[in-house]
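Structure request: tRNA (adenine(58)-N(1))-methyltransferase non-catalytic subunit TRM6, Albula goreensis.
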Amino acid sequence: MANNMDDGIDAQCIIKEGDCVVMKRGDIFKAAQIQKKRKVIFEKQWLFLDNTIGELYGTTFEIASGGTLQPRKPKHTESSTEVKKAGTDNRNIVDDGRSQKLTRDDIETLKEQGLKGQEIVQQLIENSTTFTDKTEFAQEKYIKKKKKKYENTVMILKPSTRILAQMYHGREPGKICYLRYDSLAQMLTLANIHAGSKVIVFETCAGLVLGAVMERMGGHGSVIQMYPGGGPVRAGMESFGFPEHFHQTLHDFPLCKVQDLLGGRLSQDAPETDEAAPPKPEQQSPEAENMDTVPEAGRETEERDKRREDKAQERKTKMEEKRKKLLAAAALLEPRNADGLVIASRFHPCPVLLGLLKFMAPSRPFVVYCQYREPLIECYTKLREQGGAINLRLAETWLRHYQVLPNRTHPVLLMSGGGGYLLSGTTVLTSPAQPATGPAHRAEEPSPKRIKLQETDD
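Returned structure:
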């Protein structure tokens, strides 16, 4: 029994063909898919990921000649770069560019001779005239910097919300509305995302927020993605590499049809629109009929008609599938009992929030992310005026990295200036306003006044 459990755990940690992975070198990440004999460019270098199949996630690979990857053998890097002598301070060191005896051509020659990154770093240390005069901390910093530049290694990681959020925020933050990974973690917590719930997601963050919600739910429950435009964007979600049963819980619904669904105008028996209907074949002229007598012309006409019919049938099939998906998503939204709402988009969140809150059940959490504070202040004011939400809270997330090393723990000098703003709250039922006169009004009066009214009536 234990062996079967171990085998199951190992199977999830082994890289297989077709898996979505994340390549890491230093602080640089890139998502890719494992396919044999397929070139992948990473940091201006072509790679082949064939040799990663069968290895464990988290393995570090060395880039060999031809772009092939070889698992890096474990070894003690400290022994090869061990330095016996170190200076007391760096005051007498002058950075004039003459301390290194090796030139760029010499380093390229070493690379052509087949020397690996660790050996090149050792050569740089031996040919530096000021290395032994540096302090121990400065020497470690120098070695770390040269390793990052000359060691040709790549680490293969399993995709996760944290890794993909760091990848997008580090390379293309504009695609995810500058959503930082700590803000994304706060959103998942405030919206109470868990397995078995029904969650509405509206985001324009390349599918990253959608993928994070689906990962937290674990393939159990329902996710309705509201999308603007012609179709949903799911590039970030596809980078997670979810299994098939995860995709069965995902539904999409166009934002432009929300008002029709709320007003009951989205009929399930409504006929298809004729916008995408294929053009009707034109009536053949007498000249075309005469051409049919020629065998070659008749054969070309038949092939052309057949292609036209195939395209029309394919278009009709796609429209029918799209209609079924639309009705399935509408059936989930119509009861208005969603368990959570997550909004993170570049559009103004106020009208979207007020419209989508109507699909939620009472006593359910919602969270809205925006890069700027002013749109969320407007949402806060509108919700306070119209009611239907309590425990409203507008907050800004803040994150700071620390370098934790012996005798030199301090905040990192370069850090993110802001992680955006989050508006969270809980939905409640709104009771209709009671009339100002009548028995109900008398029942709400203070007890002394109610007694006087009763005495007057007697």
